[in-house]
Amino acid sequence: MRLQNQRDSTYILKTTYDTSPDLQSFLLSEHIESLQNIYLVNRWIDTSMDILKSYTRALPSFIKDPAISILGSQKCYKSLVEDLNYNDIACLKLGVSKALGVGIVAGGSIVKVPQILKLVNSGSSAGISVLSYILETTAFLITLGYNVRQGFPFSTYGESAFIAIQNVFITLLALHYGKQNSAAAVTVVAIGAALYALFSHGGITFQTLQYLQTLTIPIALGSKIPQIFTIFKNKSTGQLSAFAVFNYLIGSLARIYTTVTEVNDPLIFWGFLLSTGLNAVLVAQMLYYWNSKPASAQRLKNKKKAI
Fold it and tell me: For the chain, which residues make up each domain, given as ranges?
């Protein structure tokens, strides 16, 4: 900014020597006035920043301590919060990544609520692939168990817990509305057994859990395929929630950034990248089949017209 101002100053001053005396005087006075305005603005910014710093440096511990915990770096907390130094690129990237992570966890806590409400209000499971939800829930439970037993911060995997809980509700509702109550009962028992095996030290060994964690990528990716096929077959998204589908795409895109910034693990990166691709396909289907009726319903309507 200051370099640009210097260039402008040089240009204006040079111009004044190539013009008439009156115009020189006018240009010079305009230039001086602009410099005065720039000085006043810079002074106002500096004063405002000093006032803000006096507050950020005096934040109480119940705000400061969680913020440091979320950032995971006292140095970056001091740079970004206390000194308001947004030229610190490394800490700024970390701060953005942490903010995205917290946002993903918060979004994950409600992402499937519209889907649950849509199922309850319609009393139908049309367009819902139970297999997709079972596979996705399996992947989330394995990831959740792995992170808990590793003792990782909740902010790095919290959405897995919230989405898994919501998926269980959706699966049970879909089975109930599909008149498969016995399958719903088996599902509850299977989930209970899985929770014990994954979270209890008396369950599977950690080495086995590590192996299962490597399988979550194909499981998670495979969970999208049945849903994509169901939509394509029905030519309709049925009771699938647009809010959930769009938020999945946004969340997976954000996780790519947080992985590159904080983890830099190729396995996790490619998992999120492939997941983003399949989420993009679901979004494309959601847009293409928006307000479309299921193929079976359309055929029935055509038969009635023919009669």
Answer: 1-66, 100-298
d(CA 161, CA 203): 19
Q: Which two tokens stand for residue 278?
A: 């399949």
pLDDT of res. 261: 83
Is residue 116 classed as helix, strand or coil in its secondary structure?
helix
Q: Residue for token digits 């919290």?
A: 158
Question: Tokens 């649950």 appear where?
Answer: 116
Cα–Cα dist 287/302, whole Å:
24
Residues 6+ apart with CB under 8 A from 42: none
Read off the tokens for 109. Answer: 């806590």
What is each CA distance from 207 to 97, 149, 191, 201, 202, in whole angstroms?
A: 30, 11, 21, 12, 13
26-52 confidence digits (pLDDT tens): 666 767 777 778 888 888 888 888 898
| Cα 262 from chain centre | 15
The 10s digit of each residue's pLDDT in 48-82 is 888 988 988 888 988 889 888 888 889 999 999 98
One DSSP character per residue, 4-18 reads HHHHHHHHHHHHHTT
Closest CA to 249 of 284, 219, 223: 284
User: Residue 260 corresponds to which tokens in the numbers above?
Assistant: 């590159």
**Token pair for 204:** 């599977």
**What is the Rg, in whole angstroms, of the alpha carbon atoms belonging to the chain?**
28
For residue range 145-192, what is the model confidence (pLDDT) as tens digits?
A: 888 888 777 777 788 899 999 999 999 999 999 889 899 999 999 999
Residues in the chain: 307
pTM (2 d.p.): 0.67
